[in-house]
Specification:
115 residues; alpha/beta; 5-stranded parallel beta sheet; two-stranded antiparallel ribbon; 5 helices; 25% strand
């Protein structure tokens, strides 16, 4: 990973956001978090992140339903959708680049981001 890239993490669990942000802050120039989809869209419009780490189940909707919106903001954005439910097929159909199941594994996330 190159340190000039940006990462947006979207998860309603603040502890998860904080953990992921701390885990990746040395690998990206900018790492930002959002806890709601509407907030994430605003951050994405401003930041135009290279990588989006997107939880599916959020208080204001499903990440699956917003993948297309995020891709319209930055078509080159690499979208990693994650969920405790097995949504691999649905995630890919929705336009996500990859699906990861919970619990999240930091090593696996890093490996996926390097691709």
């Amino acid at each position: 990973m190159e340190d000039h890239r940006s990462l947006l993490i979207v998860d309603d669990e603040e502890d998860v956001c904080l953990l992921l942000k701390r885990s990746f802050r040395r690998e990206f120039k900018t790492v930002e978090c959002a806890n709601l989809l509407e907030e994430a869209v605003q951050v994405a419009e401003r930041l135009r992140p290279d990588i989006l780490l997107l939880d599916n189940n959020l208080p204001d909707g499903l990440g699956l339903d917003f993948v297309e919106k995020f891709k319209s903001i930055n078509p080159e954005m690499y979208v990693i959708l994650f969920s405790a439910m097995d949504l691999h097929r649905e995630a890919i159909v929705a336009g996500a680049d990859i699906f990861l199941g919970k619990p999240l594994n930091l090593g696996m996330i890093r490996e996926v981001m390097r691709r």
